[in-house]
């Protein structure tokens, strides 16, 4: 699939969204548990950075600890006990690692609105990317050499990143700290639905 042809990849995603997943009215529904975990991530970090009531004493005590230790603790708390647990664990880990890269000792108060927005967009992007790869039996990222596979993964990830950012960031404009966890769950699912719509409406 790694041809370097963005149009070919968009055609494949059009087929994936329309046929393989049943379109934008059906496909995004499968992200319910993933969006719920993402909303939990948002709610937890928003509480910790603003000292809102109900904050986890155990997590709050991690302030100043190595970032890797904090990420592991957050993931352990947020991963649900359901069939999507492994997928959610992977996405949480990757999103937190990417957005907190370079931070050695963790300070919850240093989490700005921008960091929180970027984290939620990254989490949703990685969730979509993971679903496309798994649903297609890795057809989107197959190649004859390791280099070809790596290039295919990058092409797909870039495309998913651009379209998710386009549809999700406007939904997070304003004061993100005022959003509830339920509202963040709705935002994720709305953005995913718009991604599906764009893919299924694609015309070369």
Descriptive key words:
204 residues, 8 helices, single chain, mainly alpha
Task: Describe the protein in words.
The chain has 204 residues and is mainly alpha-helical. Helix content is 64%, strand content 0%. It is built from eight helices and no strands. The chain has helices spanning 6-20, 32-50, 57-60, 67-78, 85-99, 113-135, 146-168, 181-200. Helix 2 packs antiparallel against helix 6, helix 2 crosses helix 8 (181-200) and helix 6 crosses helix 7 (146-168). It is globular and about 50 Å long. The two termini are 17 Å apart. The mean pLDDT is 88.
Query: Approximately how much helix is present in the residues?
Result: 55-70%
Could you give a short account of the major beta sheet? none
Distance between the termini: 17 Å
Q: Strand content of the residues, in percent? A: under 5%
Q: Which blocks of ≥5 consecutive residues have pLDDT under 50? A: none
Shape: globular
Give the H and E element order. HHHHHHHH
The beta-strand count equals: 0
Please specify the SSE layout and strand pairing.
Elements: H1 6-20, H2 32-50, H3 57-60, H4 67-78, H5 85-99, H6 113-135, H7 146-168, H8 181-200
Helix pairs in contact: 1-8, 2-6, 2-8, 4-5, 5-6, 6-7, 7-8
């Amino acid at each position: 699939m790694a041809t370097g042809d963005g149009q070919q990849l968009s055609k494949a995603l059009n087929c994936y969204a329309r046929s393989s997943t049943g379109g934008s009215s059906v496909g995004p529904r499968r992200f319910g548990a993933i969006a719920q975990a993402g909303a939990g991530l948002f709610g937890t970090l928003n509480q910790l950075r603003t000292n809102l009531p109900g904050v986890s004493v155990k997590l709050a005590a991690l302030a100043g600890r190595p970032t890797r230790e904090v990420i592991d603790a957050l993931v352990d708390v947020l991963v649900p006990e359901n069939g999507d647990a492994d997928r959610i664990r992977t996405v949480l880990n990757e999103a937190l690692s990417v957005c907190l890269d370079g931070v050695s000792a963790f300070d919850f108060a240093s989490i700005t609105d921008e960091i929180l927005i970027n984290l939620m967009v990254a989490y949703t992007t990685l969730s979509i990317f993971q679903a496309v790869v798994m649903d297609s039996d890795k057809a989107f990222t197959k190649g004859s050499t390791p280099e070809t596979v790596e290039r295919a993964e990058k092409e797909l990830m870039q495309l998913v990143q651009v379209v998710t950012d386009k549809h999700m960031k406007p939904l997070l404009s304003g004061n993100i700290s005022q959003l509830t966890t339920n509202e963040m769950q709705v935002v994720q699912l709305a953005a995913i639905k718009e991604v599906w719509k764009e893919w299924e409406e694609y015309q070369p």
